[in-house]
Amino acid sequence: MSGSVQVTQKLQHQQHQQQQQQQQHHYESSCHLSTKSSVSQQSFSTYKTSSRRLQTTVKTEKGKEVVKLSPLPKRAKRTYLAMDTDKEVIGYVIPVFRASHEVVRGLTEAQEEDVTEEGINYVAMRNLFVREAREAMEVKVEKRTRTTHIRESAERMELGKTMEEWAEFRKKMNPDSLTHRPEFIVKPRGQTVWEGKTVKLHCTVAGWPKPRIAWYKNNVLIDAKAHPEKYAVESNYNMHSLEIKNCDFIDTAQYHVSALNVKGEVSSVATIVVKRFQEGKEAGPLDPKPHGFCAEHGVTFETTIIDKFEVAFGREGETLSLGCTVIVYPTVKKYQPEVVWYRNSVPLKPSKWVHTHWSGERATVTLVHLNKEDEGMYTLRVNTKSGFDTYSAYVFVRDADVEVEGVPVAPLDVRCHDANKDYVVVTWKQPAVEGSSSILGYYIDRCEVGTHHWAQCNDSPVKYARFPVTGLVEGRSYIFRVRALNKEGVSRPSRVSEAVVAMDPSDRARLRAGPSAPFTGMIKFTEEDPTVGVVPGEPCDVVVTEATKSYVVLAWKPPVQRGHEGVMYYIEKCISGTDIWQRVNTGMPVKSPRFALFDLAEGKSYSFRVRCCNSAGVGEASVSTGEITVGDKLELPSAPGNPVATRNTDTSVVVIWGASQVKHLVGYYIEYTVVGTDKWMPCNNKPVKQTRFVCHGLTTGTNCVFRVKAVNAAGYSQSSPDSDAVVVQAAISVPGKPTGVSLVEAVKDYMVLFWTAPASTGGADIRGYFVDYRTVKGDVVGKWHEMNHKALTTTSYKAENLKENVFYQFQVRAMNMAGVSKASLASAALECKEWTITVAGAPVGLHVLEVRDTSVVVLWEPPAFNGRTPVNGYYLDVKKASAGEEGWKAAHEKANKMKYMKVTGLKAGTSYVFRVRAQNLAGVGKPSAVLGPILAQTHPGTKEIYVDVDDDGVISMIFECSEMKEGSEFVWSKNYQTITDTSRLTIITEQGKSRAIFNSPSLEDLGIFSCVVTNTDGISSSYTLTEEGLKRLLDISHDHKFPVIPFKSEMAMDLLEKGRVRFWTQVEKCTSACQVEYIFNDVIITEGQKYTMNFDKSTGIIEMFMDSLEITDEGTFTFNLVDGKAKGTTSLVLIGDEFRELQKKSEFERAEWVRKQGPHFVEYLDFTVTPECNVLLKCKIGNVRPETEITWSKDSIEIAEDDEDAQKIERKDVDLTFNIGKISKADAGIYEVFLRDDRGKDKSTFNLTDAGYQAVMNELFRVIANSSSEITVVSTEHGIILSSMVTYYNEELRVGWLQKDAKIAASERVKSGVTGEQLWLKINEPTEKDKGKYTMDIFDGKDGVKRVFDLTGKAWEEAFEEFQRLKAAAIAERNRARVVGGLPDVVAIQEGKSLNLTGNVWGEPVPEVSWTKNDRELVSDERYKLKFEHGKFASITIAAVTTTDSGKYALLVKNKYGTEAGEFTVSVYNPEEEENKEEKKG
After folding, report:
1. Which residue of 170, 484, 663, 1407 could cross-link 1455, Cys pair, CB 3.0 to 4.6 Å?
2. Contacts of residue 295, Cβ cutoff 8 Å, sequence gap at least 6
3. Over 60: is that where the pLDDT of 790 sits?
């Protein structure tokens, strides 16, 4: 500013008051020096000026003093000048943004935005608008003494000197004041790294305006956004870095970094060299290590990953953990490897969804609340200073169950892009499953961070997987979610997006980058900013970035000339063929240089343009976009090419397909169906971009067909053609390497070799082996030569034509139908010379069968060299795989003569190794090669051999296998020797089941029978047939050959009417030829006068009836059945006390029958209590006639027809009732009912005394208690009432009230009682202590019925609030001002008379009193004398009334509780006029 500004004291005073009124709405304008400065925060050095401004000293809450300046004049531009105590302008103030940059950066998106370069003027002004809100400050004005003033002046002089030194320093750093070209303070340095490592280049750049940084690889620009899995670029506080992940050999290059601003450009070069570990033969222990490979005290670390996680399957909402055990050898104290987890080659960062843990031995990653975004290839990478090791497996996330059948599943991967002040673009990926019908569109929801309210952004569903959301509030953070819609309904919402802040991209970039400029102490300006009050220019580069059927998105660049206050925009459209421009956003201009237009007609063409506006006005329109036709620009993907499915494992298939020709491909979804069904199921729930995918989780042996569909933002493609059907089975591969090549016998010119078959057969049987040899002389080895040209079928070989005393090495290769394996490890150098040892050699051919959780069968072959005497036994040793050599234990004590042994007592899930030693008369030989490790674990789906005996008595053993493959066969063995003799067993195999039938089972068949399924993972089982087991099977076989008729139930006896007896049984099945013999005490009985027989062959029920039981009928009753060759017998013994008890029951039943021949009681007299709580005595009668006499009596006194109780008796058909009604103690007594006629009589009695009376009362109490309603709460002016209604209340009913499970004691304040049928508890003048759970306990004859009401929370608040309101209303009603009497309704008075009326008034406080006539207030004067005496009596006096005094009068009383009017009518008449009127009428 070149000149000085002078203002009057009055204007200063007005401006000072205005600033004080607006302090809480403006950002802080006081000066704060940088914390790096050594000067105090009081004042600045002085420069000449004549401006005069008020100055106050302010104390913040922290006690710091800060100088404040009064505002500038109202019409002046706010310049933010810094002045000293002499009112001298000393510089331009840049308020410091005091918020944590980490906090601000956390609110911004991860995406970098282009930053518009701005001049220093604009930077200083814009920083004022990103200041945090003013802290509340307590202002205290202090007067300063002269001494203080002098001291502060001295401090200012010292500060001025310091500032000059800073200025000199900045001149060196900034040759052109502040603005200067970029320069590298720290240049990037070249590095050499191992392949697979991550490397980072760093540099520090100075320059102003802030330079733009770009990285190049061999002069090609690096786009880190396009390749986030490979590159990561960061820029913080002028420090810049380029991170290259998972370096490959092709990353060796020259990397340039370029820094550019308006003053110029500089660049620097660094070279990255990526070294690859040497491939080829395995390094020996003495081989030299690569340069730099040994990093920690000359130690080379070897990393082994064990206990690996397999392909995992989870469901949305579940928690899934993956883990591996990592062994780093050797162990170096305080050294830990670097453990990194990746998903789809992108490092995982800990978050609320991802938790990683490294315990020092085990690395785990836990995925909390799984979502489909979590699906992918997970990789564990362990980095040491000697290299790295990795392991990967895929994680599949299945959809959660839908709430409504047929609706789509949730979309996924919701992201936010292109965020501005009031606008953001939301994208997502379509789900794999559309439901029972195609997806019609999507709904987008938004929620402001910090709230839980979700608002739907679009009224109608959008088809594109991309939508612009407008109407955001600047500065606020939002999260978004998406729901899919089809004909059946709406899906569950997707996982929410990351939070995004609605703000200007340049502000976001500035906040991410840190402070806008280095602090220089002050900034000076010498002239006024010319852009103040200028209308902004026109925007440029207006383009249509997106166009769909639903919306069109415009984007443009802000104008160069826009002022410091910021600009907003108006958008205009013009329909093609017209010259009329219509403003789209007429209500409110937009703040962002982006805008989405909806409600455009599909197929029509439009032109668009944009205008800028600010407080100075609206600028010129931009250049038109040209005609844009509304419609989808992005087409649906084409169908992928024909998929080809190939076998992979027992549960997976590899699918390869042709790529879809489409722009902006999101990925592919793969589906499969089982042949014979129409249900297609997804293989992946997250789209994959490659054209090859391994579909896991399939069922072994199923025949599957696959298809693929592509997806982009526009939607799904048509499905590809179906693949050929493929059976889910493991693919056949070459076998693994044989192991353990060793020498078992040596003579002068030949050696016998043995080796162990490979652990993996490659899915096919081993067809043979090839042996190679070479000579060894010292450290010199010869070339490998083949020994056999024809494949060997055994795991041993006699190598002939060798030279004596020459050393040889041997290696072996295995072969199957897929090819020849890699060679085994070479054996040790073996000398060809004759052995002289006497003990047997090592057994060979160790292998296992029948691996279970706690047992395993080990088999072996005898040694090739027996020693001086034949082998007479074997010893089997076992140890845990993790144990040392001292862990070997003998599996048995005595020598085992067999070549197999079952080892038991193993621990499930533990790995074991085995070895065998042979014994002869000379002793025990060397142990065999170690077999294992073998994991003690039952293979899933393993079945055991079971024995079956069919209906014809044929005994057979059956073994089933569900994992049969091509070429798999069942091989049966006895005592682990393949069965070749078919005279004892006949073997029948059908698909996955094999049956071994005993031709003639006998003791010759005792032994261990086993069955092995070839071409599988060792599926086998065995069955030991013992002598006892054979005997049991032969017995079952005999029963089947000679069957017994099965009985569904044994013989039983029933008593029938008249005392008849029924003996019966039921067989499960029989033929029409079945015959029955009825026997009593070994004598066959036949049907006659005493016995009646019946046999229903359709139901199998056999019956025999007897009219009565006599003394001679004591004994045993038997049914003998014969049905062809099957027989059956069942008996029932009736003797002794049992027979006599049955005989009594028979006689009683006969007597009952006789009783029922006359009138009788079907149901004897009993009671019931009705829902209305009436007590009824009831009974049911039978076989009555009209002449049957029915008599009631109480306490042996007959109830006559004219008695009062006779009205209570009622008969409905066969039901008799006596309605006692509401029972009392007067109703107690003995009630009887008599039935009589000429056929007989009967009587029923009910004792309604003592126990009977109490039983009735208990039932009554139960009905009353269960009829009680839930407790309700009612508030009154006195307090709160809890109540419950019952149907009826009896004074003997016990009712108790409890609060917080403690009995409530009655008091004046808390009372309980009964009013009619209402049970209540009154709480007068309730307090906080009365809150809690209230229980009403009603006795129901047993435990009691409880009704509970929780008088807390909202219920208490509403009840207490209503009580207070009613209490206040009652007080108001009692104290309300009112006229209580004294005034007539009508007053007729003769003209000239005096009228005096007095009204009685009440009110507390004493009301205000006024009088009105015809709704106009009267004032006390000579004519109207108005008085109000003693606060109770209001009077009005009118002397000498006239006809004009007639009218409607009212006495108005009013106090704070209300107003009331006492109205009356005054009629003044003239007698003479009345007489004249009468005469005229006459």
Report:
1. 1407
2. 301, 384, 385, 386
3. yes
Which run of H or E residues covers position 1354?
Answer: helix 1353-1375
* 17: DSSP letter: H
Residue 482 has pLDDT above 90, yes or no: yes
pLDDT at residue 415, rounded to an integer: 92
Residue 396: is it exposed, middle or buried by C-beta count within 10 angstroms (0-12/13-18/19+)?
Answer: buried
Half-sphere exposure of 1020 (CA within 13 A, CB side): 23
Residues 683-721 have pLDDT tens digits of: 999 999 899 999 999 988 889 999 999 998 888 999 999
pLDDT at 81: 46
Residues 6+ apart with CB under 8 A from 73: 7, 11, 12, 15
1168 to 731, 1174, 1220: CA distances (angstroms): 79, 8, 11
Q: How many residues does the chain have?
A: 1482
pLDDT at 335: 83
Contact at 8 Å (CB) between 1066 and 1100?
yes
* φ/ψ of residue 992, rounded to 5: -95, 20
**Distance between CA atoms of residues 977 and 973, nearest Å:** 5
pLDDT of 1468 strictly over 90: no
Contact indicator for 1335, 1297 with CB cutoff of 8 Å: yes
Q: Which two tokens stand for residue 515?
A: 């402070």
**How distant, in Å, are the alpha carbons of 17, 637, 640, 694, 1446 from that of 719?**
74, 10, 7, 18, 99
Higher pLDDT pick, 125 / 712: 712
Measure the CA–CA gap between 344 and 672, rounded to whole angstroms. 23
Pairing of strands 312-315, 387-398: parallel
pLDDT averaged over every residue in the chain: 81
Those residues with Cβ within 8 angstroms of residue 1013's Cβ, 6 or more apart along the chain or in another chain: 961, 963, 964, 968, 969, 970, 971, 1019, 1020
Alpha helix positions (H), 621-686: none
The beta strand positions in 462-587, using DSSP E, are 466-470, 477-486, 489-490, 500-501, 540-547, 551-557, 568-575, 582-583
pLDDT at 838 exceeding the cut of 80:
no
d(CA 523, CA 519): 9
Confidence band for 71, pLDDT divided at 50, 70 and 90 = very low
Which residue has tokens 């010498």?
Answer: 526
d(CA 610, CA 914): 84
pLDDT digit string, tens, across residues 171-202: 655 545 567 889 998 999 999 888 888 999 99
Q: Within 13 Å and on the Cβ side, how many CA atoms surround 1172?
A: 6
Smallest Cα–Cα separation from 513: which of 521, 502, 505?
505
Determine the residue type at 256.
H
Structure tokens at 1159: 């009138």
- The token pair that represents 1172 in the structure block: 């209305």
Cα-based angle 59, 62, 68 (whole degrees, multiple of 5): 30
